Amino acid sequence: MFASLAGRAVIVTGASKGIGRGIALRFASVGCQVLVVARTQGDAESVVAEIGAAGGRARAFAGDVTRQADMQAMAGAAVEAFGRVDVLCANAGIFPAAPLGAMSEAEFDAVIATNLKGNFLAVSACLPALKARGAGRIVLTSSITGPVTGFPGWSHYGASKAGQLGFMRTAAIELAPFGITVNAVLPGNIATEGLAGMGAEYRAAMAASVPMKRLGSVDDIANAALYFASDEAAYVTGQSLVIDGGQILPESLAALGG
Length: 258
Ligand code: NAP
Description:
The protein is built from 8 helices and 7 strands; from the N terminus they run βαβαβαβαβαβαααβ. The chain is of the alpha/beta class. It has one domain: 3-Layer(aba) Sandwich (Rossmann fold), CATH 3.40.50. The protein has a 7-stranded parallel beta sheet, sandwiched between helices. Helix 3 packs parallel to helix 4 and helix 4 runs parallel beside helix 5. The longest helix is centred in the middle third of the chain and has 29 residues. The chain starts with 8 loop residues before the first strand and ends in a 15-residue tail after the last strand. The relative contact order is 0.14. Bound molecules: NADP nicotinamide-adenine-dinucleotide phosphate. NADP nicotinamide-adenine-dinucleotide phosphate binds next to helix 1, helix 4 and helix 6.
C-alpha cells in the first residue's frame, strides 16, 4: 500500500538514532528521499551512509529543533536537495527524568522547548513547502506518557507529549484546506539508544508490563508513520495512534496474569 510514497521528499528530525533513524530508514526503503536531521552532524551522516549503502537517497542536516533559524535552514536544505517537501516527521525529543521538587525551571524549559516548541518551529518552517505540494503530511512523535499514562519523573515530558496532541488538533484544522494532514504516533516503550540509557532494570520492568511481553521496535513506529504519510491516509487527520503492544490496557497486575 505504500507504493504511493516512492519519490516523496521526507524530513525526519531526531533521525540519527532510535525511532527517528528507524523512520528515516523505513521511508528510504520505500523509495523516499530523506533529510536526516540531528544536532550531531557525524551521527546524521552515518544514517545517510547507511541509507546510501542500501541503495536509497538521503542527505544529512545538522540542526537544533529548538532554534527557529535552524528549522528554517532545514526546510531550505530539503527544498535545495530534493526540490520539495512532502512529509515532515517531527520526531526529535528528549526524556531526562526529574521528580517534582527537584526539577529545575531550566530542566522543565528544555523538555518543553525540544518536544513541544520544536514541533511548532519545524512545522512552521516547512509550511510554505508543504502548502506548495497541496497534499503535505505531518507526523508527530508523541508518546503514551502524558496523553494516556503518567510515570514518576516525567511530569515535564508528559506535559510536552500531551501538548503535542493539542497542537496537532488545531494544526489539523488550520491546514486541512491546504490538503495537509497532521497526525501523531504514540509509542509505548521502544528499544532505542535513548531507552538504553534508562538501564536494564527499567527495560526489563517495562517489557514485563507489556501484554506482548517485549519492548517495541523502531519499525513498529516507522510503519505507522508510513501509513499516516501515504496517499491512502489522505482523509485521516488530527488523529493519534497508540503503538505499545497493549501496554496501556491492563487495569492491574492481575490483568497481566500476576
Ligand atoms: P533517542 O534514541 O534519544 O534519539 C533522539 C534523537 O533526537 C537523536 O537523533 C538526537 O540527536 C535527536 N535530538 C535530540 N534533541 C534534539 C534537538 N534539540 N534538535 C534536533 N535533534 C535532536 O530518542 P528515541 O527514544 O528514539 O525517541 C525519539 C522520539 O520518540 C522522542 O520524541 C521521544 O519522546 C519519543 N518516544 C520514545 C519512546 C521510547 O520508548 N524510546 C517512547 C515514546 C515516545 P542529537 O542528540 O545529535 O541531536
